[in-house]
Design goal:
This protein is mainly alpha-helical. 59% of the residues lie in helices and 9% in strands. It is built from 5 helices and 2 strands, in the order αααααββ. A hairpin with a 2-residue loop joins strand 1 and strand 2.
Amino acid sequence: MLKDITIGQYFPGASVLHKLDPRVKIVLTIAYIVMLFAASNAVGLAVGVLFLIVVYAVSRIPPSMILKSLKPVVPIIIFTSLLNMLFIDGRVLVSFWILKITAE
């Protein structure tokens, strides 16, 4: 089971990103995380996704490896999306008992 979890595992390669100093990679990762949390609209998030796609393209990591590393994160994304849909106040789209799905 632990062989399937690839988050944080090193993938060997000879790209420009692989040759960077580890401290530079850590600082860039922290800057990327701060940028994502500071994004206040869809444009900011789209820039973050575009940057991520460019980084993956430059690093030449196979798409199958990327998808495999995202597999353990999918349940967390689904759970938080459900919580967000059900408990954020706003314009109510669907209401059932105490649960409400809002537009926001």
